[in-house]
Amino acid sequence: MLLVTDIKQIRQLSREKEGENWGFRSFLRDCKVPAQKIDYVVQKYYRKIADQIDCTQCANCCKETTIFLKEGDIAKLSNSLKKSKKEVIDSYLTQKEEDEQYRFHSSPCPFLEANLCSVYKSRPQSCTVYPNLQRKGVMNRLSTIIKSCEVCPIAYNVFEYLKEEIWSMDDCEDIEEWY
Ligand code: SF4
Ligand code: SF4
């Protein structure tokens, strides 16, 4: 299967495939295959695809996603920027009344410079794990991952591989054999 990396094309295709993707989520949930086995398959595809995509040429997650910051993330930025936490909050962050979580005040992220992260070593934890495919517990994050398919070429292509390989099986028992 050819990788799709053009972000406009990915956005369009993801919208067209939205119903299909939610259907695949239901299929996976109904399969009752142990979550660790799904993690194993997803991580296999994640490694295969992430190796072929240059995030420094993309940086779309830094342009289009909402990054939430925890206290520890703010402390890390405060140390690396040599600013107080209040200065970091006032300069770069905002909160919304409905959830009170800190997020960057602008999009693209204020730390994105020439497609690179200017605070790479002290970037928020949620930036380090995006698109959330390489961590355990994929089954609990399927909704978030489906939303990421519109933004992230890695997420989009991993999901396409999964559908192609798993959905074509007659029986979920076959997935059991992969582990
Ligand atoms: S902190 Fe860095 S990695 Fe995170 S969104 Fe901003 S530019 Fe991207
Ligand atoms: S994680 Fe996804 S959206 Fe972010 S830079 Fe890499 S390919 Fe692009």
At a glance:
This protein has 179 residues and is mainly alpha-helical.
How would you characterize the overall build of this protein?
This protein is mainly alpha-helical and 179 residues long. It folds into two domains: 7-61 and 131-175, no CATH class; 66-129, no CATH class. The protein has helices at residues 7-16, 18-31, 35-50, 55-58, 60-64, 71-81, 85-92, 125-129, 142-148, 153-167, 173-176, and strands at 68-69, 93-95, 102-104, 112-113, 116-117. The strands form two sheets. It has a three-stranded antiparallel beta sheet. A two-stranded antiparallel sheet has the order 4-5. The model has no long low-confidence stretch (mean pLDDT 91). The structure holds iron/sulfur cluster (SF4) (2 copies). One iron/sulfur cluster (SF4) binds at residues 62, 67, 109, 111-112, 117, 119, 123-124, 127. One iron/sulfur cluster binds at residues 62, 67, 109, 111-112, 117, 119, 123-124, 127.
Secondary structure blueprint with pairings:
Layout: H1 7-16, H2 18-31, H3 35-50, H4 55-58, H5 60-64, E1 68-69, H6 71-81, H7 85-92, E2 93-95, E3 102-104, E4 112-113, E5 116-117, H8 125-129, H9 142-148, H10 153-167, H11 173-176
Antiparallel strand pairs: 1-3, 2-3, 4-5
The structure holds iron/sulfur cluster (2 copies).
Keywords, please?
179 residues, mainly alpha, three-stranded antiparallel beta sheet, two-stranded antiparallel ribbon, binds iron/sulfur cluster
Helix content: 55-70%
Strand order of the largest sheet: 1-3-2
Number of domains: 2
The helix tally amounts to 11
Largest sheet: 3 strands, antiparallel
Report the end-to-end length measured between terminal Cα atoms. 23 Å
